[in-house]
Amino acid sequence: MDKAELMALLEDFRAGGLELAEVVERLSRPPLLELDGACLDVHRGLRAGLDEVVFAQGKAVEELERILAALLENGRQNILVTRLDAAKAECLQASFPDFSYHPRGRYLVRIAAPRQGEGRGEVLIVTAGTSDLGVAYEAAVTLEMMGQESSILADVGVAGIHRLLSRMERLRRAEVLIVIAGMEGALPSVVAGLVERPVIAVPTSVGYGASFGGVAALLGMLNSCAGGVGVVNIDNGFGAGYLAGLINRR
Question: Domain check: are 129 and 104 in the same one?
């Protein structure tokens, strides 16, 4: 249950569409769903602004099937599964055909009750290169789950800084910026030096050997000389999207 669902429940009761006993029964349901090998937090949306998201990496298809079935039985309309490979996604879609899979973003999603208009403005997701787009898509779907508007500005890294400078008006219109880069991770510092907005930096594992799978970009972002930069973990598009959504919410 999230805040929108709770408000709809109470409005339905006030309008006479539900009996008091039905409301009490719904609110008396436990906040946790105990499964074999999983414990689902079904009240996280009430507390934290976003329902629990299923992290698929390391989970077997059978485990994911049990989790998704339990969430659907519990009334969840919007469900996001992250870090899901294509083979597992194909198996899950056979059982849950109303879910959509995004191969580049590696997520499976069902949005049956869209949330809209919950942000103050646009969150702009900026990538240094097209190789960083998978992380950008994960951030974008997270913001969609939070009812917030976002768009992606791709391939404007520091190797051709004029590409970024020619989009200054778009950068300044954004309420929050998520800036994603691999290699040496310089782009968030540049963006933060140009705009009066919070910048959430996301290092990616894109790069040659000495990038150490994103550690070089991570350290570069943590050592940014520009103010207003916060850094999430390597390839963590979900974490960046969630943080941006909290900052940008009305």
Answer: no
What would the pLDDT profile of 159-202 be if each residue is shown by its tens digit?
Answer: 999 999 999 999 999 999 999 999 999 999 999 999 999 999 99
User: How wide is the angle at C-alpha 122 spanned by C-alphas 8 and 1, nearest 5°?
Assistant: 25
Could you tell me which of 117, 97, 109, 126 has the C-alpha nearest to residue 201?
126
- 142 plus 226 within the same structural domain: yes
Asked if residue 15 belongs to a domain, the reply is no
For the chain, the first-to-last Cα distance in angstroms comes to: 20
Q: Residue 107: beta bridge partners?
A: 102
The residue type of 95 is S
Cβ(54)–Cβ(67) below 8 Å:
yes
Q: Report the DSSP beta bridge partners of residue 54.
A: 81
Tokens of 194: 């140009």
Strand partners, 38: 35
Q: For 65-84, write each residue's pLDDT tens digit.
A: 999 998 888 878 899 999 99
Count of structural domains within the chain: 2
What range defines the domain where residue 103 resides?
Answer: 3-7+28-111
Question: In 10 A of CB 3, how many CB atoms?
Answer: 13
Q: What is the CATH number of the domain that holds 146?
A: 3.40.50.1970
